């Protein structure tokens, strides 16, 4: 069956299967957009938490650390309740749309980005803080400098976030509804095909998903290795 | 030159009175009183743990003053004064960037003129050909020289050097000493900590001798080495105090 799945996977790619590419594109779109939005929020927030000392900082960090392990179905359910017609954000009308899937994934990824960024920046800030203080560098410049110098280590954060996004199924199936040609992504298709007993197709999709994740990992890791050689990590 | 002298005058004399610092119940600095004059090179000597580095950090404003006062030309430390002070750490802290980017970081504005200035400073420390090299791939001596060049780029009136030549090769040591003398000639006041007696003799006009957080002597270098006043200083010079 594994061989058959590999053949099936190649067929899907080589024959430019329209349905398959639609699912693949939506998967990537939802994953990358949620990752991008999470990074836009999480990177500065994580850096701020690492650099600034304020009352309640540790509690906020503990909260984000705990949220790293949020069960996707619970997040899916909460987002569902918030954006369903009777929910407080029902007026947005985004339930069962890719937007809802992006929101759910963002909630899952942001704590990962914040916590890991805070850990990385805390380490770099510990190293730099006396220098910045002696040079009378503004906190704004220090924040940007820490984030910039941690750029290669941040790749690990991006990888972790992407991993979570691309493999997510529980939340997106609840808020997206797995609607054909609208909200069907790789993971929800795999779940659906498995439940239908179409194991060969499910496995083929799984193989492609794995290959995509592997390629992205390889690119980012090679960048990090290059940076390590230059002692930028 | 005129600007440098004017700036230098604005920070000195530095008058330190009853400066004390506690770490738990231990006094790290104990009622330090001294006066640092304009355009002087002062070597801070003393065994390990005597409070030398902390003394520099307190002058720099890195460590807040708990009790006592530090006055720069009758003024308490403020943002403008801190901008006039540069501290070179014993272990160079370099950004994870190239040599050039490390230099550019301390400048507020980047333009052609500032790049020229950077190159002049890098040339002075013998690192102009390494400008695109990652700073952390430099040798220990080169890193310390870069650290010094970066400090000089902000054109400070007061230069604080924490063991600037510890464990360095003779070339880096000579180069750094030449730069210290040269910068002093240009009007900068320099305070450095060192364990190298030869270096203190070669560079310093005045000596501050610390032991167990106390300033035991402030005297002219020539007098300190010829006839130290305290027993502790005598023992230190003769190598009888553990470094």
Structure overview:
The complex is a heterodimer of chains A (233) and B (243). Chain A has 233 residues and is mainly alpha-helical. Chain A has one domain: Orthogonal Bundle (MetI-like fold). Helices cover 79% and strands 0% of the residues of chain A. Chain A has ten helices and no strands. Chain A has helices at 2-14, 18-51, 57-67, 72-83, 98-134, 139-149, 151-167, 170-176, 186-195, 199-229. In chain A, helix 5 packs antiparallel against helix 7 and helix 9 (186-195) runs antiparallel to helix 10. Chain A starts with a helix and ends with a helix. Chain B has 243 residues and is an alpha/beta fold. Chain B has one domain (2-92, 157-237): P-loop containing nucleotide triphosphate hydrolases (Rossmann fold, 3-Layer(aba) Sandwich). Chain B has helices at residues 2-11, 52-60, 79-83, 99-105, 112-124, 140-153, 170-185, 197-203, 221-226, 231-237; strands spanning 14-23, 26-36, 41-45, 67-72, 75-76, 85-88, 158-162, 189-193, 206-211, 214-220. In chain B, a hairpin with a 2-residue loop joins strand 1 (14-23) and strand 2. In chain B, helix 5 packs across helix 6 (140-153) and helix 6 (140-153) runs parallel beside helix 7. Chain B starts with a helix and ends in a 6-residue tail after the last helix. Chains A and B meet through helix 5 of A and helix 3 and strand 6 of B.
